[in-house]
Amino acid sequence: MKTVRQTTSLVLAVSGGAGLEASPHQVAAAARAGGVGVLDLGAGDAWSLRVLARAARRAGSGLGVRVTAACTATPADLERVAGTAVELVIVTADSGWDVAELAARHRVLVEVASLAEAHAAVAAGAHGLVARGMESGGRVSELSSFVLLQQLVGVGVPVWAAGGIGPHTAAACVVGGAAGVLLDTQLLLLSESTLPDRAQALIRRMDGTETVLRDGMRGLDCDGVLLPVGQDGWLAADFAKRYADTATAVRGIRDAVLDALGDPDAGEALRPGAPLARTLGVELPVAQGPMTRVSDVAGFAGSVADGGALPFIALALANAEQTRRMLTEAAATLGDRPWGVGVLGFARNSCARRRSRSSGRSGPRWRSSPAAVPPRPRGSRPTASARSCTCRRPGCCGSSSRPAPASSSSRAPSAAATSGRAPASRCGRRNSAC
Q: Cα separations (Å) of 370 from 223, 316, 343, 397, 404?
């Protein structure tokens, strides 16, 4: 399996951002815990530079800074205020700072949102990349962190993943080829944070649906100010419950990654022909989650199967006639290749029975059934029973992925598959941090 370069850090811990006051204490705590503490220069104004000076005095050396397009400070300001304390500079692809010039004096990582930006950054002399996935805040990709990471790991420089990072996703990213992960939103509610009370209250109540995309920036509106907090903002409250402070959080993420790297079989779970792939009857250990208005067409399922994964047709609330049509088309497209259907556990019993009879006649090998969780009002926080997890506690998860009813064209495999959609759970944890 892949190992991490010894000269790189597994955890980059960023404090601050546009509208989020950076904390020198948090940066120092991250460094003490074995990560790289990174100070976001924010607007780059006089106050930001004073905070940088304090962070530089505390760090002495090994300090990181992050620069976005909102920063008015210059590389000359960085040298004047922080001297030789700064080792790492993270710049967004639109920051305006000259990567080649910076690379002559610092280790430089460029935050990118696409493969094209990654190639441009490498050509400019970047030492590494940060894959800023759609789950995170600020200038983000159209792709999720893990999908973007897979596109970037072959460009020739180390890549760090940012967005939706918890202990298990951090381990998965590194096993999957990342040099490490970046934490930012996750640290906002820890003890060293200097976030104003109003912003803390908003973030503490987040479930991920509150963010908006404005002029290409993903964020959380706080009294008219767009804070660079993404859909993974709910992780801040989760981290605050899990970890006493920033140092504990950084160590927790780092230890989770090292534990995974110490498992000689960890990387094998992701390879073609892995045990899960053999159970599902496909090439890759990947099950595509049912997605209404996306995976309810046979062509989409065919593309997933052509790529080596297990496709699922999303039946959602389709009536019997629609269900028969979708399944007939899918069966014709997929032939003898395995596939499945996704049904809603909270659908009315009569509707569910009709879909079940139709799916049994049309040949899907697998069926994914989310637990019967009633819909909740928009903006309300999900209850513990409605949240999802991937833990292995006996009896925890309330969803099931099981073979579809037997038919003349289907056969029941020996084990159950797991759909890509998050199951409901009684333990109250969510996928990224569970």
A: 37, 11, 7, 10, 14
Q: How far is CA 78 from CA 7, 25, 73, 147, in A?
A: 24, 19, 8, 34
Contact 13, 27 (CB under 8 A): yes
- Reported pTM: 0.74
**Helix ranges (DSSP H) in 287-337:** 298-306, 320-334
Q: Summarize pLDDT for 201-226 with one digit per residue, the tens.
A: 999 999 989 999 988 899 999 988 99
Whole-number CA gyration radius for the chain: 23
Q: Which residues pair with 159 in a beta bridge?
A: 129
Residue 369 has pLDDT above 80, yes or no: no
Residue 25 belongs to what H/E stretch? helix 24-32
Buried b (16+ CB within 10 A) or exposed e, 287-311: bbebeeeebbbbebbbebbeeebbb
Tokens encoding 379:
């903006």
Please name which of 162, 135, 213 lies closest in space to residue 11, comparing C-alpha atoms.
Answer: 162
- 36 beta partners: 12
E strand spans, 165-224:
180-183, 212-214, 217-222
DSSP 356-408: HHHHHHH--SEEEE--------TTPPPPGGG-B-----TT-B--EEEEPPP-T
Residue 137 and residue 80: Cα distance in Å, rounded? 30
